[in-house]
């Protein structure tokens, strides 16, 4: 028993120790050389006599590292935040004690000892940063578990009113977190006082996995989605626990609220600088391949920026349909219900270049390359946007909340469509032709026009810019007219349409929407 306890309390893993020891000896040598080089240039003196004191400081560094647990697990079994804390503790203790001893009991320069130790820390930290960034990028987090397609599952418990004491407790919880105004709003939209309503405040997905399946008709999570790591996992877990058409209520602070608050709080000019900083930290870094896992290690995913579009898109992605969106006291509450299983879970990209599945020739799915102009998960909101806003003049969605401010500019200037040249080079598209459509948009077309437009390759320059149609029916007629003529004379038709499109864009200043 004593041997087992001794083994568990051991502060050194021998394999890890010798591997890291070799690395840190090289680091100390590198740091010492850099400091010596700097001293030689600045003071014109040689520092060969510091070899022994540097070696002693290195040994002291290793001893401190042992007690800080730096050689117990190694990088593969730890994470960036914990390793950074251990490294900084080791550095502070070693730098302060070694330089003090040098200052009080020797004639050596304590600055050399101090800055050599700091140099080792800096080099070691950047090496760790590179290692973890690379490791996290090539080994992404565990993918979300897909739940097997289930049979229809009705609510398996009878809804009954809860006791007066429980009602008071629920009111007290909601009012403490959000205030009276939001409590009244929730009471107007869901029945808080039924036994089949689950009120929970957690950022841990496993708290939902422990809930009894099909026992609750409504689940309300009071924790802001901005502070939850693994939102899709959370939604999928709730999806698996709700009965058919079960309801979900969640809340978050939208990015626009943070933006307006910062812009109104600080002076003009400075406010945009501050907002850009927070936008980079809270929205960009959590999505970048080489920084996302590091960001989560340090912040636990708290305080991220989300657009309303992204949250709604994630809900549809995870098998929900949005019933209502209510904004109160700077927070956005989303009321949704379960409609299906979650979509296939894949590792998603948030970069500026995106690949969108579109219907090409012979109804084959082609990946069309474009610059990102919409918020993430926007592609799952097409039905929602169509139901809410219908189509505007020109066949686009009216008041499309999915498009970002920069995205609207890129669409007006056709910058977003430049990557489609890659599709032209690959042979998926031709220069002139009807646009490749998404499944949802394609489904709005008459059957005969669907067959006609998929009998040829889609094009980069659509016949839209020749006729400039305003209604959906006019768009159908314009495309049908082009396709029928193209069938008779492909080359001359495309040549004629190319010059007519060129004239419309250059001289009539037609712009994309």
Describe this entry's structure for a reader.
By secondary structure, this protein is α/β, with parallel strands linked by helices. The protein folds into three domains: 2-138, no CATH class; 197-338, Rossmann fold, CATH 3.40.50.150; 353-507, no CATH class. Helices cover 52% and strands 11% of the residues. It is built from 21 helices and nine strands. The strands form three sheets. It has a five-stranded mixed sheet with strand order 1-2-3-5-4, sandwiched between helices. A two-stranded antiparallel sheet has the order 6-7. Strands 8-9 form a two-stranded parallel ribbon. α10 (255-265) packs antiparallel against α11 (270-284) and α20 packs across α21. The N and C termini lie far apart (74 Å). Residues 1-10 and 140-148 have low confidence and may be disordered.
Strand content: 5-15%
Helix share, percent: 40-55%
Distance between the termini: 74 Å
When the domains are counted, the total is 3
What are the segments in which pLDDT stays under 50 over at least 5 consecutive residues? 1-10, 140-148
Largest sheet: 5 strands, mixed
Global morphology: globular
How many helix segments? Answer: 21
Structural class, from helix and strand content?
alpha/beta
Strand order of the largest sheet: 1-2-3-5-4
Number of strands: 9
Average pLDDT confidence is: 81
């Amino acid at each position: 028993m004593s041997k087992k306890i001794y083994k568990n309390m051991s502060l050194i893993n021998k394999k890890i120790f010798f591997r890291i020891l070799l690395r840190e000896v090289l680091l100390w040598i590198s740091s010492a050389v850099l400091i010596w080089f700097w001293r030689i240039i600045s003071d014109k003196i040689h520092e060969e006599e510091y070899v022994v004191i540097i070696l002693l400081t290195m040994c002291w560094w290793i001893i401190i590292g042992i007690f800080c647990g730096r050689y117990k697990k190694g990088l593969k079994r730890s994470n960036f935040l914990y390793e950074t804390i251990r490294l900084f503790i080791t550095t502070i203790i070693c730098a302060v004690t070694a330089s003090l001893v040098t200052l009080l009991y020797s004639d050596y320069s304590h600055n050399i000892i101090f800055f050599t130790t700091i140099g080792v820390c800096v080099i070691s930290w950047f090496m760790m940063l590179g290692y973890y960034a690379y490791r996290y990028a090539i080994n992404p987090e565990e993918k979300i578990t897909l739940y097997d397609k289930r049979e229809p599952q009705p609510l398996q418990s009878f809804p009954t009113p809860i006791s007066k004491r429980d009602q008071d407790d629920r009111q007290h919880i909601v009012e403490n977190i959000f205030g009276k105004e939001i409590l009244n709003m929730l009471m107007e939209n869901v029945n808080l006082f039924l036994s089949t309503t689950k009120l929970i405040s957690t950022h841990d997905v496993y708290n939902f996995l422990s809930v009894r399946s099909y026992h609750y008709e409504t689940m309300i999570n009071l924790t802001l989605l901005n502070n939850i790591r693994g939102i899709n996992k959370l939604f999928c877990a709730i999806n698996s626990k709700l009965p058919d058409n079960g309801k979900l209520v969640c809340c978050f602070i939208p990015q626009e609220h943070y933006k307006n608050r910062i812009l109104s709080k600080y002076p003009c000019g400075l406010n945009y600088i501050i907002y850009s900083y927070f936008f980079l930290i809270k929205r960009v870094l959590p999505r970048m391949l080489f920084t996302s896992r590091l960001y989560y290690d340090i912040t636990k995913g708290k305080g991220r920026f989300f657009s309303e579009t992204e949250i709604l898109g994630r809900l549809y992605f995870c098998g929900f349909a949005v019933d209502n969106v209510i904004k109160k006291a700077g927070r956005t509450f989303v009321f949704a219900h379960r409609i299906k299983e979650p979509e296939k879970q894949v590792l998603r990209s948030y970069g500026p270049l995106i690949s969108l599945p579109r219907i090409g020739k012979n109804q084959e799915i082609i990946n069309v390359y474009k610059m990102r102009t919409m918020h993430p998960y926007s592609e799952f909101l097409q039905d929602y946007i169509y139901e809410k806003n219908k189509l505007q003049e020109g066949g686009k969605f009216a008041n499309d909340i999915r498009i970002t401010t920069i995205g609207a500019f890129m669409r007006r200037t056709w910058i977003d469509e430049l990557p489609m040249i890659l599709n032209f080079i690959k042979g998926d598209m031709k220069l002139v032709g009807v646009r490749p459509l998404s499944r949802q948009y394609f489904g709005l077309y008459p059957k005969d026009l669907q067959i006609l437009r998929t009998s040829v390759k889609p094009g980069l320059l659509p016949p839209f810019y020749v006729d400039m149609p305003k209604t959906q029916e006019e768009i159908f007629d314009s495309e049908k007219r082009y396709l029928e003529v193209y069938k008779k004379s492909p080359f001359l038709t495309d040549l004629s349409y190319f010059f007519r499109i060129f004239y419309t864009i250059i001289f009539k200043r037609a712009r994309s929407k």
